[in-house]
TrEMBL record:
SUPFAM superfamilies: DinB/YfiT-like putative metalloenzymes (SSF109854). It comes from Saonia flava. Keywords: Signal. This is DinB family protein. It comes from the Bacteria. Residues 1-21 form the signal peptide.
């Protein structure tokens, strides 16, 4: 009995130690930030939506192994890592919008490993959410989605972020959760139990 208790304690310690490595502790969205805004505005609601994206992405990608990243359900589908690449691209569109930057076709970004992609995705979500949280309704007129290429540019209002990149990111985060279950590494299978309803972690 003592051996079993000791083994359980050891496994718990390993899990806690892993979840508190600098690689994880330095990343935003292990939990949704404390506190609610006192008022409902376009900015605070949009920011909370992005907080939800960040929280779900953090836990959907937490603890992924090489075999999870290379998994794909069929030959024509994206792998899990390619799906994460797509999510990062969507988040860049959101972040560029609130920073009033265009999305320029053909832009080359630095090559990143999985952890680098995860970190950049979470940090871009956090930056965008913080800008939105203090934005007024009139600010949203400047948060257009702008796509530029050699033939010119096209613009869309922030409304399209809601049913476009933000909704699409949530869709693909769900795919990551599904893929990792299929590759034998289910979402939140450790001691920490994230609640997508509260945005907090139950131990």
């Amino acid at each position: 009995m003592k051996k079993i208790t000791l083994l359980i304690a050891l496994l718990s310690l390993i899990q806690v130690t892993y979840s508190q490595t600098p690689e994880n502790m330095d990343l935003p969205y292990r939990e949704i930030p404390d506190g609610y805004s006192e008022t409902y505005t376009a900015g605070t609601v949009s920011a909370r939506m992005l907080d939800g994206v960040g929280f779900r992405f953090y836990w959907a990608t937490n603890g992924l192994r090489p075999e999870d990243l290379s998994f794909k359900p069929n030959d024509e589908a994206r792998t899990t890592e390619q799906t994460i690449d797509h999510i990062l691209g969507l988040v860049r569109v959101v972040n560029n919008s609130v920073n009033q930057r265009p999305n320029i076709n053909g832009t080359e970004y630095p090559s990143l490993d999985f952890q680098g992609k995860r970190k950049e995705t979470l940090e871009l979500i956090k930056e965008a959410a913080e800008i939105l949280r203090t934005s007024t309704s009139s600010d949203f007129e400047s948060y257009k989605i702008v796509f530029k290429n050699d033939n010119g540019q096209s613009e869309f209002p922030f409304w399209n972020q809601l049913n476009g990149p933000i909704a699409d990111a949530l869709w693909h985060i769900g795919q990551v959760v599904s893929f990792r279950r299929s590759s034998g590494n289910p979402f939140a299978s450790g001691i920490d139990k994230p609640s997508v309803f509260t945005g907090k972690v139950r131990n």
